[in-house]
Every structure is written in structure tokens, then in C-alpha cells.
Design goal:
19% helix, 12-stranded antiparallel barrel, 135 residues, alpha+beta, 12 strands, globular
Amino acid sequence: MKKVFLSMILMLSLTAAVEAQTIRNASNAQVGTIERDGTIRNRSNSGIGKIESDGTIRNGSNSMIGKIENDGTIRDRSNSQIGKVESDGTVRDRSNSQIGKVESDGTVRDASNSKMGSASGVKKEWAAVFFFFDF
């Protein structure tokens, strides 16, 4: 019985690990998903990019197009800083102006505090890349 229980827990854990998080726009319509491994898909379920575990951002052709550093700095393919996500979710552009925020519940807001969408269960840096930095 104990083995069966442990097997069920393992299966549920593996299922949750591959589950994708839904990305929604301000009208609550699904616009894409981000899988736990960083794969980004559009609403038609086509792969449009990936954020790798080291922060490398790749497009749908697997070309490196940017990077998220450990401190939340976001760089383009030329290694130029194009933005930053602060620990509180504040998103800033290359000139350090606040352009939005990713709230703890995944709600994404622009600089005017208007809701842009949501990315519940997604790392705030990943949500910022999806909504603010047009890769």
C-alpha cells in the first residue's frame, strides 16, 4: 500500500511539473502558455520561444535573442540592457523608467496601473519578458 501511495505522489508530481501556465490578456482571453521548462506557446499551441534555466531567451527558431540575469536584468542578443525586473515585480526599461509591474498573484499592469493581463504561476521575469519586452 505504501508503494502504491508513493507511486501516486510521484505521478502527480511529474504531471504538475509538465503543466503549462496560461497567459491571459486584459480581457481574460488566453493568449498563450508558458510551460514549467520555459517553453512559450501561442494560443494555437505553436512553440514561439523558450526561456532556458540559465536565463537564455530563445525564439521559435531556437536562436538566442536575449538573457535574463540572476538580478532581474534583461539583455538583448547584443548584451545591451533593455530592462530590469526588481524583486517586488516592478518592471523598468533601459532608461530606468517604470513601465509596469508583475504582481505576486501574476497580474501584469502597465505604468498607468491598467491591467495588461495575467500570468499566474509564472516567474515574474518570464511574465515581464512576455508582456513588456517584444522578443
